[in-house]
Design goal:
By secondary structure, the protein is an alpha/beta fold. It has helices at about 65-75, 85, 170-175, 190-195, 260-270, 285-290, 295-305, 330-340, and strands spanning about 5, 40-45, 105-115, 115-120, 125-130, 160, 185, 200-205, 210, 215-220, 240-245, 250-255, 275-280, 310-315, 355. It has eight helices and 15 strands.
């Protein structure tokens, strides 16, 4: 495999802000609209950096919950659906099928559940946030099985990780991978993989990129945070990915995110996104989760900000992480899509285990 890394110019990059009340900058006059960043110089990848900041707290777009919010959550206990909200578990869409045939020109996606996708593009098979475990730390068992059995996967050519929360970074699943598998991770997370024997790990900051066999992996911002232990809050970065195949077709994998200004900026820097993979679940109660998880209406708005052609919902129908009824994300995203007047065929609301092939 051939590998390269890109370090885009920082000029013109939107400033990071930890003040969610700050007024947005005024829109520039059309004549002053900044040009897209210049092309990046690609360099060899696979190295781990030792000079990352100790914390990425300055990248937060909203403050983390304090003691008062934690006390309110404990008092209200609104972290799981009511019994009536769980009655529709048998109706959650689960239709596993064979993976579509894939050649070097294929662009196909398969939803394995939650934020785990099998992407086939540029001749590569790429897994996003792979979680094949039946249970993750702090949650009940899966509501639906994994959409594709591990033994039915083709050889995995690369893995992308959005951040280190347990429902996105699953150690038991990653132990199943050969240690030479290329892994693309946020800044500060490389050591976690190195300690587990992975030898081809590439850490990226926002707006940095790497290239593997002609497929480009750009790491982009998200409105979220990171934490895996009591002592590592925001010690590693979080974000999403834009993957571009040699034909120029693009998919945006948002990872885990709230709604905010970054979507429009990603759309500006990566025009012509063919498919956006956006989270629609784990949003209730809003006072607790609105800063870090989009609700279905915000996901549709984010899709429009990205300027993407199609959207595939994710981050629902798999784990119980919040208090909305289990089937509500699907009904609300369909209603929001219809209200926005978007073509129905461009909403790829796939059942767990289903696939779609992107055609020109």
């Amino acid at each position: 495999m051939t590998e390269r890394t890109a370090h885009p110019a920082r000029a013109g990059q939107a400033p990071y802000s930890s003040d969610p009340t700050a007024a947005p900058a005024p829109a520039p006059h059309p004549a002053q609209t900044p040009a897209p960043p210049p092309p990046s110089v690609l360099q060899p990848i696979g190295r781990l950096r030792a000079d990352w900041p100790r914390t990425f707290v300055d990248r937060l777009t909203a403050p983390l919950p304090g003691v008062r919010a934690m006390a309110r959550l404990a008092r209200e206990g609104a972290v799981r659906p009511r019994p009536e909200g769980l009655r529709d578990i048998p109706l959650l869409p689960f239709e596993p099928g064979p993976l579509p045939p894939a050649g070097p020109d294929t662009f196909a996606v398969t939803w394995a559940g939650h934020a785990s996708w099998i992407l086939r593009l540029g001749g590569l098979t790429v897994l996003t946030d792979p979680v094949w475990s039946r249970r993750i730390f702090g949650t009940p068992a899966r509501l639906t099985p994994v959409g594709v059995r591990w033994e039915d996967l083709p050889p995995v050519d690369a893995v992308v990780i959005s951040h280190n929360h347990f429902d996105h970074l699953d150690a038991p699943t990653l132990r199943r991978l050969p240690r030479h598998t290329p892994v693309f991770v946020p800044a500060g997370l490389g050591r976690w993989f190195a300690r587990r024997g992975f030898g081809r790990v590439t850490e990226l900051d926002w707006w940095e990129a790497a290239e593997l066999d002609g497929v480009r992996f750009d790491f982009v911002p998200a409105h979220h945070w990171s934490k895996r232990t009591l002592l590592d809050t925001c010690r590693s970065l979080w974000g999403g990915w834009v993957l571009t195949d040699p034909a120029g077709r693009r998919v945006h994998f948002a990872g885990d995110t709230g709604y905010g200004h970054w979507f429009a900026e990603i759309g500006r820097r990566f025009p012509g996104i063919d498919l956006s993979l956006l989270p629609i679940g784990a949003y209730d109660p809003r006072w607790w989760l609105s800063d870090v998880h989009t609700d279905p209406e915000e996901a549709v708005r984010a899709h429009q900000d990205l300027g993407a052609r199609r959207m595939a919902p994710m981050h629902w129908a798999t784990f119980v992480l919040s208090s909305e009824p289990v089937l509500e994300p699907l009904t609300r995203v369909r209603a929001a899509w219809d209200k926005a007047g978007l073509p129905r065929e461009d909403l790829w609301d796939l059942p767990v285990g289903a696939s779609r092939v992107l055609t020109p």
